[in-house]
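tokens incoming
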């Protein structure tokens, strides 16, 4: 895992087309802005970890099922660090 330090309003670029910007820092919470092409889906990790029984109830607000719900195998836990 690559761990980067970023300050407020600093960003990083992924694959030359996805930009992630630190838009706010408050206590232990970090707000991120994500600029990506329309064909790139971005989901919060907790949505990818919802069990199949919970998914239909949660999905009622959205039109599409996140592709990460279809990912086989175990989702690995990652600790993201902002310094």
């Amino acid at each position: 895992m690559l761990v980067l330090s970023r300050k407020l309003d600093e960003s990083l670029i992924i694959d030359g087309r996805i930009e992630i910007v630190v838009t706010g820092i408050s206590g232990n919470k970090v707000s991120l802005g994500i600029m990506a092409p329309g064909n790139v889906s971005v989901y919060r990790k907790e949505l990818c970890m919802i069990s199949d029984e919970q998914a239909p109830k949660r999905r009622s607000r959205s039109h599409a099922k996140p592709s990460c719900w279809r990912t086989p195998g175990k989702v690995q836990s990652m600790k993201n660090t902002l310094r």
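note: The first strand starts at residue 11 and ends at 14.
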